[in-house]
């Protein structure tokens, strides 16, 4: 918050009649607390143009001292004039900002003038509070609004959806206030004025009745000016045909407004007995006119925002407000391409009444914003930060990382031994650890963790930076290892090849591993040995020697039919599992590794040739000639992913 005894210097900049309706309640709140705030008011844009009502006078009538008036509008009402107006504002604003030296600039909405304000303040290291960010309307205003949000340090938004949009735009949640629309504070208080009929009659005529007139306000869409002009003409034609008293406001100063005024004059609207054309209406009176109208038509944000608070029927023409949140009182005519379509919408909406909507506010926005302003800590760093979603950290170029050797821990769960290795990026095994494989799952996990911890400790002395631990099989696609969404791709050992097979360590049955792994063959060898069916004449086997898969292979080679049957079943299970992979991903080659690879190669090739589809029967099964393929393959799962460049 501001330092003890010091007031927060708040500069409020207003560009046009529309943003003033939102800023005026905040300005009044700031002015009513002179012990906390100093208010500076800067007026620019269309406020200072006679054709648009010289609306700066209403700011003076509201008893605000205007510190600076900046003539920033380049006339022409086309795209080039808008750009030149932004440039002119950027030329004039630095002197004003340097003179006022505000602690914070309050800027509203999505107008090109507001973009100039935010740009100047950001470049001059002035904190910015942006009102009504995060909303979506559907025109170039969206781009301008979001650009201002990125420049702003703080946000006071109107709806929950807008708040979520700002968070999705990576803005800091702690600097976003869900306040509601400040104009609602005034309009909800003044909705039930006793003199509303006097106001209606003063702007229309003495004969008009409540609910028996239309308020029309249509602005150009700068991304499609010609279409805007066409819709405007069709709207005027429909209103003439509908034959109701209509209060029509001139369009804003955006590119295309001059042509729209020409259309209005060609159709004689200013002289038509049913129409009253005006450049400006004070906001408090405009509220009364909208709240008691039979219908509002056009594309003003007032139609989809303020009008909903009264349940006034609204016809929204074209795309200018397409993305806005609206109440049920709004009927969209997005493709307003015919007079009849707009006329029919008038027939449907005129005279209806809808439930009041408070999507955009509850009347308490200003107290929330003042409290938010008081909480701003001017000692916090001025540089804003963005809350990006988590992403993989980039490869560091710190000298310590460059001097270190990027490495992985590889784990091989063999039937006889557990092995762990530190493997560097070049595929070199820096250090290897081996321990007999315990009999229980808990003991195996405990030993794996201990061996990994030992390796991690040794890696520090060996100047190796461990990027991760790798365990598992692998599928290589387009020269890259396939990881899967949860890094569990290619659990080849747990492909099921039988519904009722032997129990697997994973808890299931019939997995390849339960038939063909070293531990599975060791289990079958022990069964045969216990039944005295393993040893054959001429086989060298010491009584004290532990039974392994090697004894089973040796017995089979020496003619033991029982051992041969076990190995045949194991090779068949492995072959069937590999056929499943061939049918799914259709690789160009199958590489077997490990101590059993050389034994399985020929039987697996035979199973493929007998059982696989014809299209994959000729895929070659080969054995790896790497020194430690299991350990290197496990390490590659880490090294490939952790060091991969992302494009």
UniProtKB/TrEMBL annotation:
<dbReference type="Pfam" id="PF02350">
    <property type="entry name" value="Epimerase_2"/>
</dbReference>
<dbReference type="InterPro" id="IPR043129">
    <property type="entry name" value="ATPase_NBD"/>
</dbReference>
<feature type="binding site">
    <location>
        <position position="494"/>
    </location>
    <ligand>
        <name>Zn(2+)</name>
    </ligand>
</feature>
<dbReference type="InterPro" id="IPR003331">
    <property type="entry name" value="UDP_GlcNAc_Epimerase_2_dom"/>
</dbReference>
<protein>
    <recommendedName>
        <fullName>UDP-N-acetylglucosamine 2-epimerase domain-containing protein</fullName>
    </recommendedName>
</protein>
<feature type="domain" description="UDP-N-acetylglucosamine 2-epimerase">
    <location>
        <begin position="35"/>
        <end position="373"/>
    </location>
</feature>
<dbReference type="InterPro" id="IPR020004">
    <property type="entry name" value="UDP-GlcNAc_Epase"/>
</dbReference>
<dbReference type="GO" id="GO:0009384">
    <property type="term" value="F:N-acylmannosamine kinase activity"/>
</dbReference>
<dbReference type="Pfam" id="PF00480">
    <property type="entry name" value="ROK"/>
</dbReference>
<dbReference type="GO" id="GO:0004553">
    <property type="term" value="F:hydrolase activity, hydrolyzing O-glycosyl compounds"/>
</dbReference>
<dbReference type="GO" id="GO:0006047">
    <property type="term" value="P:UDP-N-acetylglucosamine metabolic process"/>
</dbReference>
<feature type="binding site">
    <location>
        <position position="511"/>
    </location>
    <ligand>
        <name>Zn(2+)</name>
    </ligand>
</feature>
<feature type="binding site">
    <location>
        <position position="504"/>
    </location>
    <ligand>
        <name>Zn(2+)</name>
    </ligand>
</feature>
<dbReference type="InterPro" id="IPR000600">
    <property type="entry name" value="ROK"/>
</dbReference>
<feature type="binding site">
    <location>
        <position position="506"/>
    </location>
    <ligand>
        <name>Zn(2+)</name>
    </ligand>
</feature>
<dbReference type="InterPro" id="IPR049874">
    <property type="entry name" value="ROK_cs"/>
</dbReference>
<dbReference type="GO" id="GO:0008761">
    <property type="term" value="F:UDP-N-acetylglucosamine 2-epimerase activity"/>
</dbReference>
